[in-house]
């Protein structure tokens, strides 16, 4: 995959069963739709993935100049949530996070320690629910 921010090759990683692509140049992270679905499925606090993704289609986006690293031909859509700009592909349902945004939105997302995975994910779902227009 090619990084949507700096157009360099991204490294594929598998952390705790979740596949992501990370850019060594700018430290951006791409999480594809299938990996996002697995994150949704394994957390009881998460909304149903289908409901969340369908709601994302109704969100007002601004156009991004970044191309989806998975589709490449599609431009990502950008939306601001709690001072974090999420770049979303409406085609493959993936999200791109600039350096530091993934940890800001989803602390401990890929930490293998079960203790560190409890609790912080609720913040991620809160942000996702805001993203899809169902949160505070």
Protein described:
This protein is α+β, with helices and mostly antiparallel strands and 136 residues long. The chain has one domain (10-131). Helices cover 28% and strands 26% of the residues. The protein has helices spanning 33-41, 49-56, 101-105, 114-117, 120-131; strands spanning 10-15, 18-23, 29-31, 62-67, 75-81, 84-88, 95-97. It has a 7-stranded antiparallel sheet. A hairpin with a 7-residue loop joins strand 4 (62-67) and strand 5. The model is unreliable at 114-121 (pLDDT under 50).
Descriptive tags:
136 residues; alpha+beta; seven-stranded antiparallel sheet; globular
Mean pLDDT across all residues, rounded?
76
Lateral strand order in the biggest sheet: 1-2-3-7-6-5-4
Termini gap: 35 Å
> Segments where pLDDT lies below 50 for 5+ residues?
114-121
Provide the domain count.
1
What is the structure about, briefly put?
The chain has helices spanning 33-41, 49-56, 101-105, 114-117, 120-131; strands at residues 10-15, 18-23, 29-31, 62-67, 75-81, 84-88, 95-97. It is α+β, with helices and mostly antiparallel strands and 136 residues long.
Summarize the SSE layout with pairings.
Blueprint: E1 10-15, E2 18-23, E3 29-31, H1 33-41, H2 49-56, E4 62-67, E5 75-81, E6 84-88, E7 95-97, H3 101-105, H4 114-117, H5 120-131
Antiparallel strand pairs: 1-2, 2-3, 3-7, 4-5, 5-6, 6-7
């Amino acid at each position: 995959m090619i990084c949507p921010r700096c157009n360099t090759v991204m490294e594929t990683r598998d952390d705790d069963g979740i596949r992501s692509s990370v850019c060594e140049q700018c430290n951006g992270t791409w999480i594809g739709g299938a990996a996002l679905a697995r994150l949704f499925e394994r957390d009881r606090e998460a909304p149903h993935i289908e409901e969340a993704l369908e709601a994302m289609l109704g969100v007002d986006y601004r156009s991004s100049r970044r191309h989806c690293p998975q589709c490449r031909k599609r431009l990502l859509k950008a939306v601001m949530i709690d001072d974090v700009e999420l770049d979303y592909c409406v085609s493959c349902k993936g999200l791109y996070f600039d350096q530091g945004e993934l940890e800001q939105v989803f602390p401990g997302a890929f930490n293998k320690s079960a203790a560190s995975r409890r609790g912080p994910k609720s913040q991620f779902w809160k942000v996702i629910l805001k993203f899809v227009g169902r949160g505070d």
